[in-house]
Amino acid sequence: MPMPTTHSEPTAQVIVDASGDGYYHVTHFKGARRDWECECAAFRAFGRGCKHIGLAKSAVRSRTKPDGVISVWKSLDLR
């Protein structure tokens, strides 16, 4: 059976603090229609960007961990 073409391997994943307790995973998929996805309710319900995605982009581009970022993972494919 061939691999599905609708899903790809993530090229980056950032874990950010939630406003309350917990955290959210923000994931980057290179070449996908939606490059960045967040598991927060606002992104899932409305399909728009959220503050978590902005924070994740900042962390990936600056190569630092700003306040609110718990962890950053990048693959070698993300340039």
3D structure, described in words:
This protein is of the alpha+beta class. The protein has one domain. 23% of the residues lie in helices and 27% in strands. It is built from two helices and four strands; from the N terminus they run βββααβ. It has helices spanning 41-46, 51-62; strands at residues 12-17, 23-28, 36-38, 69-74. It has a four-stranded antiparallel β-sheet, with helices on one face. A hairpin with a 5-residue loop joins β1 (12-17) and β2. The protein is globular and about 30 Å long. It starts with 11 loop residues before the first strand and ends in a 5-residue tail after the last strand. 22% of the residues are buried. The model has no long low-confidence stretch (mean pLDDT 83).
Question: What descriptors fit this protein?
Answer:
alpha+beta; 2 helices; globular
Share of β-strand residues: 25-35%
Radius of gyration: 13 Å
Please give the count of helices. 2
Instruction: Describe the strand arrangement of the main beta sheet, using strand numbers.
Output: 3-2-1-4
The main pleated sheet reads as: 4 strands, antiparallel
From N to C, what is the helix and strand string? EEEHHE
Mean pLDDT: 83
Short description:
The protein has helices spanning 41-46, 51-62, and strands at 12-17, 23-28, 36-38, 69-74. The chain is of the alpha+beta class. The longest helix is centred in the last third of the chain and has 12 residues, at 51-62.
